[in-house]
Every structure is written in C-alpha cells, then in structure tokens.
Design a protein that fits this description.
- There is one protein chain.
- By secondary structure, this protein is α/β, with parallel strands linked by helices.
- 55% of the residues lie in helices and 15% in strands.
- The strands form 2 sheets. Strands 1, 2, 3, 4, 5 and 6 form a 6-stranded mixed sheet that branches. A 5-stranded mixed sheet has the order 8-7-11-9-10, with helices on one face.
- A hairpin with a 2-residue loop joins β5 and β6.
- α2 crosses α3, α2 runs parallel beside α4 and α2 packs antiparallel against α11.
- The radius of gyration is 60 Å and the shape is rod-shaped.
- The N and C termini lie far apart (129 Å).
C-alpha cells in the first residue's frame, strides 16, 4: 500500500519524503507523508514540529540519529542528467520470431504479477518500508554477494547510503550506486561477468566510491524509491555539483564491461571540471581560512605583546608609585622621628634646665676666704674656661659636680679629674637616692686644688 500511495507523488515530493525520513528516522512512510502534507510539504517546518513532539515525549533518540547520519540534499533529476538504457535485442530470424511470439505472454505475465503484488500489499504492507538497521542491510548484502559471486569485486563502501553520500561529498569523489535486483534475469550475468571482472574492479577502485545494496532490503528499497530505476541492472553516478550531490547519470539494463567502462569514463570526463572547480574553491576557502587564521594569530600575538607591554608599563608605573609612596612615607617617618627626637631633646633640655636651676639653688653658700675649713678649687673646662669656687672641707663633693653642671659653658656629661696622681673624683650624685659622694676632705683634696673637667661625649 505504501508503494501504491507513493506512485502518485512528484519527484520533488519523493525527494522531500526520503530526506524527511532520513532526518527524523521515522520508518513509516505514511506517517512521514502525513506530517509533510500537514505542513504543505515544508520540510523544515515538518522537521521542527517532529523534534518538538520528541522533546515533549522526552525522547531525544531521533535527534541523535539525525546528527549521526544526516543525508545531504540530492538533486535527483538535473536537466542535463545522462540516461543510458541498454535493452537486450534478439539475434537472427529465430530470435526475433521467438521474441515476437513471447512478447504478449511477457506483457500479460508482467501485468498479472504487478496486480498480484498490488493485491498482496493491500492486505499486507511492504516490510521494506520499515527501516530499522540500514548498516545491517548493507553488510548483509555484501555477505550474500560474496557468497554468490566471490570476493573479486569492486570494494563496497561498508556504510549506509547517507554515509556514502557524505564521504563522496567530503572527499570530492564520484559515487557509483548499484541497486541489486536479485529477481531480474540479467542480474547474475551482470554481476559475474561485468561487475566482478578485473577491468571493472580496477577501474572502480581507482576512480570512485562504490556503494551497493539489494532492493529487497529496507535500505536498498529506500534508495530505490528515491532513484526510481526502471530496470536492472541499475547504476547511478552521483557527484558534487553546484554544492549539491547530483545524480548526473543513470545506467539501466545489461551491458558489457567495456561499454560500462566507456560510459563511466565519459560521465567522469564530463563532470571532472566541476570537481576541479569545487576543489579549487575549497583550496581557496582553506587558503583564506588559513590566511585569516594566521592574521588572527598574528593579531592576537601582537595584542598579547601590546597587553604585555601595557602590563609591564602598568607594573612599572605601580612600582614607581609604590616606591614614591614608600619614599614619601619614609620621609614622613623620618620627619616624625626627627620631630619626636627634637621634642624629646627639648624635653630633656627643659628637664636639664629645671634640674640645673634646682641644683643651683641647692648649692651651699661659698665660705669666706679666711675660713680655715675652706677648700679653694680651680676648674678648667674643656673649652678652656676657668672656674674658681670655695667649698667647706666637710661638704660633699657632689656640690662640686653640681657647680660645674649648672655652668653654661660646662658639658652635660662629664667627669672631674685630678692629674697628680690622675684620679677621677666620684662626685656625681647617686640616681637611686643612695648615699652622697664623699667630702672634699675624704677624697684628700687640700687647701687649693687644680682640677680638670673631662667631656665624656668628646
């Protein structure tokens, strides 16, 4: 029934139907046709609608199969397509007579067989319309072919029809498609004497991609519905032209090996320029892409270099700013420390001034020169200044130290030294409120002494 319904389709509708089936992987031809008719044969809208239905059903297997083996669009009927039909003609008077006598019987038999097949398919749909394992169909055909005709044959492409089309398109190769009709009377002779001949095998293996399948298999049947062969043996030559895979020639009927090679050579010569042009365009695109890639890489390298320079410049600027900031902070710290030092020194000087005032006020009164307990002390300061003062023998020599300390020409840190013998007088006050230094008499100073003030900081 499916075949009978497909007979009323145009070639364009048939092509869309097969392409839609390959995209969605729906095995039912009637379902595919219904979806396409619903969308007025707009294949894109029908595919999108089908995928939306699949997403709603949480079934993404259709999309995965679509990605794995998407068939390129094929121009099945170009205006300049070459069609070669070979019909076996009778030889001699007996041959013609037999052919004329048997012609009505062959016609009636053919029509009767067609009616039987039509009636059978009305009752039971053609199982070939259900595509389940296209790769398995191809593999099974190759195995069956080798069992029947041996292994000396052109190398079959061991993949689906869609994969063969993609491979030929990608590699810019001619694709020779052979549809095997096992029930046709000329098939065995063609396979044995023509297809498996060394001449044809070498020709095909060295010049084109070869794909074949049996029309009794779903994959072969699907391709048969697209190519619409009239008789067997059937060969189609497909090649990339104007960016579409195009069936440029069809060879139908039985022919000899030399005729087949001649026709294939003629077809390839006619279409070779298109492949050369496509290769040149690909090379030009590849060159332009490589050139753009090199330019992009050079630009990116230049950009990275500029960015690196800018980064180094920024880092250098940050370093200088950081060093300037650190230098400024250092100077501020030095100034702060200097101010602190000045403040401390000022406080120390102030403390020293107050202390000197206190010490000056605490000095005992100078005794009279004729006092028998008087000790006359002559002091020589480091700057040469001479000081003279009288003290009582019983006074502590701390007053000698205080007297020198409060003088404006005396150093702040000093020792009082006696030269003969050289002795440092222990005249400095105790800082922990200990006992006072000894008296003048206790340290052995006489009536008159010359002492020297030694600057400890000198």
């Amino acid at each position: 029934m499916a075949e009978a319904q497909q007979d009323d389709l145009t070639s364009d509708q048939t092509e869309k139907l097969l392409q839609f089936q390959d995209l969605t992987r729906i095995d039912d031809f009637d379902r595919c046709r219904e979806l396409l008719q619903t969308h007025n044969w707009n294949i894109e809208a029908a595919v999108q609608s089908r995928f939306r239905e699949s997403d709603e059903d949480n079934d993404d297997s259709i999309h995965r199969n679509h990605v794995e083996a998407r068939m390129p669009v094929v121009n099945l009927h170009p205006v300049d397509q070459r069609v070669f039909t070979f019909v076996r003609r009778p030889v001699g008077i007996m041959g013609w007579g037999s052919w004329i006598i048997s012609l009505p019987f062959q016609f009636i038999y053919s029509k009767f067989l067609s009616l039987l097949r039509f009636a059978y398919r009305l009752l039971r749909p053609d199982s070939r319309a259900i595509l389940t394992d296209p790769l398995g169909d191809v593999t099974a055909f190759i195995q069956k072919f080798e069992e029947s005709y041996g292994r000396n044959h052109p190398d079959f492409y061991r993949g689906t029809y869609s994969q063969a089309l993609n491979e030929a398109k990608r590699g810019l190769k001619f694709l020779l498609v052979y549809l095997h009709g096992p029930d046709h009377q000329d098939t065995p002779l063609f396979c044995r004497d023509v297809l498996c001949s060394p001449e044809v095998t070498e020709f095909v293996n060295t010049r084109m991609l070869f794909w074949a399948c049996c029309t009794n298999r779903p994959e072969g049947y699907r391709v048969s519905q697209a190519l619409r062969e009239n008789t067997y043996p059937f060969l189609a030559v497909i090649v990339l032209r104007l960016n579409r895979m195009t069936v440029v020639a069809r060879i139908e009927g039985s022919l000899c090996r030399s005729e087949l090679i001649s026709r294939l050579t003629e077809i390839m010569d006619e279409n070779q320029s298109g492949l050369i042009q496509e290769q040149m365009e690909r090379d030009e695109r590849h060159f332009n892409q490589s050139l753009r890639q090199q330019q992009d890489e050079a630009y990116l390298e230049s950009l990275r270099a500029d960015q690196e320079k800018e980064k180094q410049k920024r880092l250098e600027q940050e370093r200088k700013e950081r060093e300037a900031q650190e230098e400024e902070e250092r100077k501020e710290e030095e100034e702060r420390l200097a101010r602190e030092q000045l403040r401390v020194e000022a406080e120390e000087l102030e403390k020293l001034r107050i202390r000197k005032e206190q010490l000056r006020d605490s000095l005992p009164m100078e005794p009279a020169s004729d006092d028998p307990d008087t000790v006359r002390i002559l002091l020589k300061l480091p700057n040469g200044t001479r000081l003279e003062r009288r003290f009582r023998k019983t006074d502590s020599i701390k007053y000698l130290h205080d007297y020198v300390l409060v003088h404006e020409a005396a150093p702040d840190d000093f020792q009082i030294v006696k030269n003969f013998p050289r002795t440092v007088l222990p005249c400095q006050r105790s800082e922990d409120n200990g006992p006072d230094p000894p008296t003048f008499e206790e340290v052995g100073l006489g009536k008159s002494e010359l002492l020297f003030v030694h600057d400890n900081d000198a």
